[in-house]
Write a structure and sequence with these properties.
- It contains 8 helices and 10 strands.
- With 284 residues, the protein is an alpha/beta fold.
- Helix 3 packs across helix 6 and helix 4 packs parallel to helix 5.
- The longest helix is centred in the middle third of the chain and has 20 residues.
- The N and C termini lie far apart (46 Å).
């Protein structure tokens, strides 16, 4: 989203940033408006919508990692009290998407393959979340809903929905100056508190906010941050002999965030092996 005009500096005006950013914002909004009207590539949207009425729903945005989806489905069933765990697959690769669907079918988990998008990385993730909100969650009217990254794994009992008894939303807070938002990889919302809002889970890069930051104006700026309970993350190297700057884990209580690639692709297989070892006692 473009900044308010009063937030631009003299140098910004000299570089025409208010004009270029306004143009880019309009273009991104047009892309979003088109994307949310596209049909799912596979899956029964109508059944997903019918099933979630009045329920507590977790939705994982998957991306070409069937193993992570398999682990997370089993761990959420073991440790997290929710009524429905829906996999919304944002994979580009058809073979990877088939593998994700096979994992879901093996355990009876609902799965939708989201519409294709030319956007990449975080921008694609934001479009995916807006599509889910518009086409599944809002018409489904669950009691509460939440979003998970596919590499976020519970390793002990936890109920994130319990926090919604005292506040409208809960998750991991990330900040940029005075603005803040809930990390899209772990956030839950009470539906009746947001049902009438034009939620926007995209990035707000012009204001330094990652995926989910588009909800600053419509939702978060109206809340008293100092009164909110939030999921504070800790961070550290995934192995003692690997510097944290090269690859790391994040933890919230018993939830492990693998954190995908962090600059060392050569470490990814080893890191996944470490994750497998950590999760093995919880998967048997």
């Amino acid at each position: 989203m473009s900044k308010r005009l009063t937030e631009y500096t003299f140098d910004d005006w000299l570089r025409l940033r208010p004009l270029t950013r306004t143009y880019k914002t309009l273009r991104f909004n047009a892309i979003n408006a088109r994307h949310i009207t596209k049909p799912a590539r596979t899956g029964d949207i109508a059944a997903a919508v019918r099933a979630m009425a009045g329920q507590r729903v977790l939705i994982t945005v998957a991306f070409e990692d069937a193993q992570a989806v398999d682990w997370q489905l089993r761990l959420v069933r073991r440790y997290v009290p929710c009524d429905i765990h829906l996999i919304a697959d944002n994979s580009r690769n058809d073979a990877q998407a088939r593998a994700v669907r096979a994992v879901c079918e093996a355990v009876g988990a609902p799965c939708l393959r989201l519409p294709a998008s030319a956007a990449r990385s975080s921008r694609s993730h934001g479009l995916a979340l807006n599509w889910i909100w518009t086409n599944v969650v809002r018409p489904g009217r669950p009691a509460a809903f939440g979003f998970l990254d596919d590499d976020f794994f519970p390793t002990e009992p936890d109920d994130p929905f319990a926090m919604l008894e005292a506040q409208d939303f809960f998750g991991t807070v990330r900040s940029a100056g005075e603005r803040w938002f809930l990390w899209a990889g772990f956030c839950v919302f009470r539906f009746d508190a947001v049902a009438d809002k034009m939620l926007d889970f995209r990035q707000d890069w012009f204001n330094g906010l990652d995926t989910g930051g588009g909800n600053w104006d419509v939702l978060y700026r109206h809340a008293h941050r100092e009164r909110l309970h939030h999921a504070a993350m800790t961070q550290g190297p995934y192995r003692a002999d690997v510097p944290e700057s090269e690859s790391y884990f994040q933890w919230y209580k018993g939830w492990l965030h693998e954190v995908g690639s962090t600059g060392r692709p050569d470490l990814e297989a080893d890191k996944r092996a470490v994750v497998a070892t950590l999760l093995k006692p919880h998967l048997t």
